[in-house]
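ugh ok fine here u go
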Amino acid sequence: MAKVDQYRAYVQDLLKQYSRHKSAYGEDEVQTIFDTEHDHYQLVHTGWHNNHRLYGCIIHMDIKNDKIWIQYDGTEVGMANELVTLGVPKEDIVLAFHPPYKRPYSGFAVN
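structure:
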């Protein structure tokens, strides 16, 4: 359980760091969404630019079966790379945005 608690802390800290980055345009807000009961974590961009609505998920990660599942990664650096830098082993990171048949070639966990 200590490993999962550490992973929760890593994921939340990363999302908090990325939430400080502001958009170059528009009136927007970056929201962190932490469902610690079910281990779902998101960073969402919402707001307005002129008369156009801005909304989108920037990062979505889950913790399932003692592994971090990256469901969506809209960053340039890559959440998997950030997690490895923090000390999370590659075998505990699933690139869920890749189809299952491609995951064995990613260097990360399959599931």
